[in-house]
Batch of 2 targets.
Target 1
Amino acid sequence: MSRSRKVAFLAVAMTLVAAASAAALGGERYGLGQQASPALIAGWDIDARPDGQGLPPGQGTAADGEAVFVERCATCHGEFGEAVGRYPVLIGGSDSLASSNPVKTVGSYWPYASTLWDYIHRAMPFGDAQSLSVDETYAVTAYVLYLNDLVAEDFVLNRESLPKVDMPNRNGFIAEDPRPDTPVGTPCMADCKGETKIMFKSKPLDVTPEGESN
Ligand code: HEC
């Protein structure tokens, strides 16, 4: 055995011994990390789900959200969600999804209003994420929905009303691929391919330099 091989062998052996003893000690602590406090978990646990789970108490209307949008969003998304430059457009695109140039927006594409709330709350304004209050988030979410003609200006958006907002593409996401050339049903897990024929073999190229023993 060459020297480098011996060293590698020793390293592997030591890792195995360490792993085995860690397993034997069962949950031994190494003085790293800390117990996650409820406040710490709450900071991470911010997802809002389609059925409204996770949405905090609070509310806002599109009328309230207009000022927030103009001040915090319009520089990138345009005053009416029409987008500035190459920033994402937030409105329109209905009936474009099946075309060769689909315009995917909140109105045309997003299946749930909860995703909009979650996304704005989590990630917007770009560069200053999570700086909106809960009420501002409800209000500005209502405003984006209003810009897409999905709610009225005075519609009160809160955790009860939000899951009920009817999103146009709600049923546009389907589990099965409708393309005719794509097999549907249970994927094949055994003996799926017929006979494999070897057409030709590659020639040994001998590219490994000789004279090195390792
Ligand atoms: C500095 C520019 C900027 C500002 C200000 C900003 N956004 Fe955005 N927004 C972006 C960018 C960039 C993306 C795309 C981010 C990505 O794909 O990772 C985005 C994405 C979005 C999307 C998803 C669009 C889609 O269909 O994929 C929504 C909704 C949105 N922003 C809403 C808002 C709202 C509401 C505000 C104000 C509270 C806001 N944004 C402020 C730049 C901005």
Target 2
Amino acid sequence: MRKTIYFILLAVLALTLVACGGGGDDASGGADTGAGEKLFAQAVIGTQAGCITCHSLTPDEVIVGPSMAGIASRGDEAYIRESILTPDAQLVEGFPAGTMPQVWGDELSDAQLDQIVAYLLTLK
Ligand code: HEC
């Protein structure tokens, strides 16, 4: 009898943990970092090749652009936003101007941009 009660308590505890674990991630400004991660990993976004086709998440691995590993330690939110909207405003050393598409302000909705920025801010 006692065992049954413990089992029920354990089951309730487990369910509570599962229910609480799946909530939205509010790490930065409330934008959905999970949605940003998915967008970043899309092979195509709108009419463009997606971020992941040029940006690795492995430290120091260059595909076409610099790796995004640790981007949040190299720049703040304003820098990351500017780097996406006007990539040539501040070039990463060693990379040529005009390689990163200059169209993200049109291709991404404001919400999508916020999500990608929020996601990149988690890559410390
Ligand atoms: C065709 C290749 C290409 C695509 C697609 C691309 N980028 Fe880039 N990106 C680059 C290159 C090259 C640079 C380095 C030159 C510069 O600073 O603009 C760069 C620079 C950056 C930087 C600054 C990196 C740093 O280390 O300071 C960020 C942030 C960035 N890109 C984000 C994105 C995001 C987010 C997307 C998708 C919405 C994206 N990029 C799509 C090529 C690309």
